[in-house]
């Protein structure tokens, strides 16, 4: 068994698609109608057949409340791995991404946290 799709709640699918593709560099894999919304997934350009990230609308009250509470408490919604966190941090800052935590060593890993502008804090980690 393996993880094929993981999702993140977003306030606006179009805004999220733009941020995750243009700022972060993920590649759109799927974008198909799904009722009043769309099934939009992205993948890493380094692993086009790897795990897909689904941009899930937060229109359900429980999803919206969950997203707002973890954001308010400063809890990242998900984590992405990077090879060189300082290089990635600088690249993202140059693209206008706002960080709530600069690269910080935590034992064997270095982490940083940014605001995805769609209701989430996202953590990047260098192992």
UniProtKB/TrEMBL annotation:
It comes from Thermoflavimicrobium daqui. Coiled coil: none annotated. Residues 1-127 form the VOC domain. This is Glyoxalase. Pfam families: Glyoxalase (PF00903).
């Amino acid at each position: 068994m393996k993880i094929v799709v993981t999702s993140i709640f977003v306030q606006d699918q179009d805004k999220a698609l733009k941020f995750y593709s243009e700022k972060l560099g993920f590649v759109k894999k799927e974008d198909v109608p799904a009722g009043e919304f769309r099934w939009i997934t992205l993948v890493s350009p380094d692993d086009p057949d790897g795990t897909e990230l689904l941009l899930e609308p937060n229109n359900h009250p429980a999803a919206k409340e969950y997203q707002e509470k973890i954001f308010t408490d400063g809890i990242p919604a998900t984590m992405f791995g990077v090879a060189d966190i300082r290089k990635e941090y600088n690249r993202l800052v140059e693209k206008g991404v706002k960080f709530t935590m600069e690269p910080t060593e935590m034992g064997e890993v270095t982490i940083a946290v940014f605001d995805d502008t769609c209701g989430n804090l996202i953590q990047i980690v260098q192992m």
